[in-house]
Design a protein that fits this description.
Length: 344
């Protein structure tokens, strides 16, 4: 029985351990992956990227979503996740992704969002096995890279179409690993994943299974890994604003991060967001990130909520940094409006 810290080789790729960053739409860009890497993630997967947008050279997709940073290459493979339903577009997108230097192509066959499923992509592929197999073959032929697929247990509760499709993808399309999220697409991200089904897949599939779902703490991830016998785990919501979870899982730390560590990490993220999008766009983009970090701070709850509210209104990073300094250690020039109301 392997440990999460064990090295791992599949499809010729060397992974230093069995802990991965899961794909996260709108979040898993190069710097979020680089952050996971800095804390030890052995495999990082991009947010889902439309094959159609790649094929038609959508400028923002090429510049932002497909950006791979040299620094994230150190410490394991970088996977780009594609979604779509047209094998020829997938072939073309996969070729482009390979030319950019990705190590691995992951195909999304689990996204439950109606806008995606309506086009025959994402979780709709669970009901369309022939197309799913054709897409996986096309991705490999187009790129020459190993292909993995991330899928759900099924579309509806109790439906095991994802389990059956995983077998077809490995047997008929040579898919080299399956990312398995054993929740039905219809429940989104709610409820308990079916780890018994994941264990059954790990036992019967002729390729490694990487488990996703409700791995929100190091203890939960470790327990699920041991209970299911999968080859690795993929952290999603558990890693939001919490790169320390990778270190915990890899046995490199046990204590939660101090306020100083959280703050310095948040400043790192602000710097990278600015580098990625330019300050004007990054200021808005970061509003989604603040709550994840703030909830890790040892702060009085009302003050934390007030700081949160002020950060959501900040119009520049110098203002955001000032608010953080004032809110966390009281060294800033002036507290924000909401924080002042609490302090008074
Ligand atoms: C905000 C968000 C975005 C996600 N984006 C993707 C995605 O682009 N591709 C994908 O395969 N799964 C995506 N997922 C699913 C996650 O990778 C993961 O399978 C799911 O959240 C279950 O893990 P968790 O319960 O530990 O969060 C997303 C989940 C969340 C919460």
């Amino acid at each position: 029985m392997p440990a999460l810290t064990d090295r791992w080789t599949f499809a010729g790729l060397e992974l230093p351990n069995r802990v991965a960053l899961a794909p996260l739409a709108g979040i898993g860009n190069w710097f979020v992956r680089l952050q996971a890497r800095r804390y030890g993630a052995g495999l990082v997967v991009s947010e889902m990227v439309s094959s159609c947008a790649v094929h038609y050279r959508n400028e923002r997709t090429w510049r932002e979503l497909l950006r791979i940073d040299e620094r994230e290459r150190h410490g394991g493979p970088v996977a780009i996740q594609l979604f779509g339903s047209d094998p020829e577009m997938t072939r073309s997108a996969a070729a482009h992704v390979a030319a950019l230097g990705a190590d691995l192509i992951d195909l999304n066959m689990g996204c439950p969002v109606p806008k995606v499923c309506k086009t025959g992509a994402g979780a709709a592929l669970l009901d369309d096995g022939d197309r799913a197999v054709a897409l996986a073959r096309a991705a490999h032929e187009g790129s020459g890279l190993p292909v993995t697929v991330k899928l759900r247990s099924g579309r509806r509760a109790g439906d095991q179409s994802g389990f059956r499709l995983a077998h077809r993808l490995v047997d008929e399309a040579g898919v080299c690993a399956i990312g398995f999220h054993p929740r039905a697409a219809v429940v989104g991200h709610r409820g308990a994943p079916d780890y018994a089904l994941a264990a059954e897949l790990a036992r019967t599939l002729d390729a490694p299974v990487i488990l996703s779902g409700a791995l929100h703490s190091a203890a939960a991830a470790r327990e699920a890994f041991e209970a299911t016998g999968v080859a690795g785990v993929m952290l999603a919501r558990g890693a939001l604003g919490n790169p320390w979870i990778f270190e915990e899982l890899l046995g490199r730390r046990s204590a939660p991060p101090s306020n100083g560590e959280v703050l310095s990490e948040l400043h790192w993220v602000i710097d990278r967001a600015s580098e990625h999008l330019g300050e004007m766009r990054a200021v808005r983009y970061m509003r989604r990130f603040y709550p994840w970090y703030l909830e890790r701070l040892e702060l009085d709850r009302p003050l934390m909520r007030a700081l949160q509210a002020d950060l959501q209104q900040a119009v520049s990073f110098s203002e955001a940094r000032e608010l953080l300094a004032q809110g966390v250690d009281g060294h800033g020039a002036r507290p924000g409006r909401a924080a002042l109301a609490v302090l008074n």
